[in-house]
Amino acid sequence: MTASETVLATLSHGVLSLTLNRPDKLNAFNEEMHLALRAGFEKAHNDPSVRAVLLTGAGRGFCAGQDLGDRDPRKGGPAPDLGRTLETFYNPTLRLIRTLEKPVVCAVNGVAAGAGANLALACDIVVAASSARFIQSFARIGLIPDAGGSWHLTRLLGEARAKGLALTGDPLEANKAAEWGLIWQVFPDETLAQEAEALAKLLAAGPTFGLGLTKRAIGAAQGNSFDAQLDRERDLQREAGRSADYAEGVLAFLEKRKPEFAGR
Questions:
Q1: Which residues pair with 212 in a beta bridge?
Q2: Predicted confidence band of residue 68 (pLDDT cuts 50, 70, 90)
Q3: pTM of this prediction?
Q4: What is the pLDDT of residues 99-125, one digit of tens each?
Q5: Are 103 and 210 in contact (CB under 8 A)?
Q6: Exposed / middle / buried, residue 94 (Cβ in 10 Å: 0-12, 13-18, 19+)
Q7: Which residues contact 131 (CB under 8 A, 6 or more apart)?
Q8: Do residues 134 and 170 make contact, with C-beta atoms less than 8 angstroms apart?
Q9: Span 146-203, pLDDT tens digits
């Protein structure tokens, strides 16, 4: 389903599974993998048969961030324009993830470092293996948290914890990440894949039109006053109430049966 082996893509039961697949490099990003992952999320936007996305990594890690093999200063030449790297490769994909009005589940199956950690945080629901670690490794090489890291860390954890993680580069264990509210849930390593797949299938079978509006409402809440958010809820609920999914949900409740949502 994908032209690149750096990201494996399969579609089943409405779930588009995207697996970062450079396990020998801990799934660190090169240009090919950037473009392949972006193509996967473009498909999620454009294909109505995709009802949810499940993102994970192959091998023993989720993603080690950017592959630094091409950034060796010993090779000489001008300093790299990392702003261009972000604008060309990371930021378009992150915006696709954040604006996708379908649920995105991320299963962090091992180390998630640098931009790899922040790629996970851009997803809607993050579950992790008990052995997983989240590392803001930018400080170790003189960089700032990118790929949305400074935004997510501050909003999810507060300034004190965000600075602690970003300035030290210390690993954050999965259980502590869940305790702090950075991620949703932790599972034993051996059951993570099964649990994440079950969650993605559950969401894909749900009222995805309304779930998309819920994502929009929660995203807007970060910058809205209470009054503005009440207005936002009013407008989005108006849309939800006119949807076929809402009609099906009410009908199924009255008929005491399981609803069959269509995502519209």
A1: none
A2: confident
A3: 0.94
A4: 999 999 999 999 999 999 999 999 999
A5: no
A6: buried
A7: 110, 174, 189
A8: no
A9: 999 999 999 999 999 999 999 999 999 999 999 999 999 999 999 999 999 999 999 9
Q: Is 166:150 a contact under the CB 8 Å cutoff?
A: yes
Q: Which of 221, 63, 62, 230 is nearest to 155 (CA)?
A: 221
Tokens 């970003």 correspond to: 166
Question: Which of the listed CATH numbers 1.10.3720.10, 3.40.50.720, 3.30.1540.10, 3.90.226.10 matches domain 7-204?
Answer: 3.90.226.10
Bridge partners (DSSP) listed for residue 8: 19
* CB atoms near residue 167 (< 10 Å): 12
Q: Virtual CA dihedral for 55, 146, 184, 5, nearest 10 degrees?
A: 10
Question: The tokens of 31 are what?
Answer: 């240009």
Residue 173's φ and ψ, nearest 5 degrees, are -70, 155
Task: For the chain, give every domain's residue range.
Answer: 7-204, 208-254
The terminus-to-terminus CA distance of the chain in angstroms comes to 25
Question: What are 225's two structure tokens?
Answer: 């006053």
Burial of 164 (0-12, 13-18, 19+ CB in 10 A): middle
